[in-house]
Amino acid sequence: MSGNFKYELLKRLQAAGNEPLSGQQIADELNISRTAIWKHINQLKEEGYEIETIRKKGYILKQAANNLDPAKIKALLETTHFGHTIFYEEVLDSTQPTAHRLAQEGAKEGTLVICEEQTAGRGRMMREWQSQKGKGIWMSVILRPDVPTHKAPQFTLVAAVAVARGIEDVTGVRPAIKWPNDLLINGLKCTGILTEMQSEPDLVNALIMGIGINVNHEQQDFPEEIQGIATSLKLQAGKEIDRAELTARILFYLERYSAEYVIEGFENIKKQWESYSCTLGQRIKATTLRDVLIGEAVEITDDGVLKIKLDNGEIKGVYSADISLEP
Ligand code: BTN
């Protein structure tokens, strides 16, 4: 079934909710025969969609398949352009290099690269990022904000707020943000964000926003070395989470907050970030490439810098660091 056609069908089924959608109506709207509709419905069922047929009335979508099918993500989108172009592969080494290549080739803002499994997923500070098949959301989004390069680091915080709100809406669980952009639930990491930039000397060409979310992992799905520090949304919310729905929700907030930051500035996003933060007010150890700083995390600035009050009273700012809590 062509992606576009599937998208049109799923969009109508989703919009109809619990009301049966008549096969004749869909056939008329899409200008194909009722038999063709019936075949497409059967194909959706084979893909894992649970669809009830009510005689003489039509079809009801009872349960969507929990996959990252671009047609399904698009049918759930509430954005003006984010996610309207989707590059989907079942397996990629990492979504980041693919998104970089697409951005260099001129891909539009909001282009999404997403896959079911990454064989060489990467995290911040050259770390490896475990990306098991069918369990998480492994995605990169291309942003093209019209801002000078010094305004780029704040997008990491914009992304953290967008993902936190998306998770909260879809799972009912409120994550905490550990500066700059790890999302934790009950102190365990469920999401990491890796922001990379393509730029001219002073102008951002593209930001590649890599987002990795542990969604439907069971405890034993995590490798031993991260057991005890990692968690999934399913483990924390106590229910399976629809990955396409969460992807669409995050794109909604990413579109909204990135535009807001460019047009109105950082103030509102900063407030939201602070309301999710589990770093501010804590005694922390910040390990940067050059230093280890120990003190109280006092504020983030309008540039996204974390200010730390050292034990001697001196205030230092860090742009990027690994943060841990200090007793
Ligand atoms: C971190 O916490 O260290 C950041 C992890 C970022 C992981 C995501 S998954 C999608 C995208 N592709 C990658 O290879 N990495 C990012």
TrEMBL record:
Reactions catalysed: biotin + L-lysyl-[protein] + ATP = N(6)-biotinyl-L-lysyl-[protein] + AMP + diphosphate + H(+)
Domain BPL/LPL catalytic: residue ranges: 71-262
Full protein name: Bifunctional ligase/repressor BirA
Signal peptide as annotated in the record: none
Molecular function terms, GO-annotated: ATP binding; biotin--[biotin carboxyl-carrier protein] ligase activity; DNA binding; transferase activity
Gene: birA
GO annotation terms (biological process): protein lipoylation; regulation of DNA-templated transcription
DNA-binding region: 23-42
Keyword Transmembrane included in the entry's annotation: no
InterPro entries in UniProt: aa-tRNA-synth_II/BPL/LPL, ArsR-like_HTH, Bifunct_BirA, Biotin_CoA_COase_ligase, BPL_C, BPL_LPL_catalytic, HTH_11, Transcriptional_repressor_C
UniProt-annotated binding residues for biotin: Q118, R122, G123, R124, K189
Functional description taken from the UniProt entry: Acts both as a biotin--[acetyl-CoA-carboxylase] ligase and a repressor.
GO cellular component, one term: cytoplasm
UniProt xrefs under HAMAP family: Bifunct_BirA
Lineage: Bacteria, Bacillati, Bacillota, Bacilli, Bacillales
Entry EC no(s): 6.3.4.15
Record keywords: ATP-binding, Biotin, DNA-binding, Ligase, Nucleotide-binding, Repressor, Transcription, Transcription regulation
Family stated for the protein in its record: Belongs to the biotin--protein ligase family.
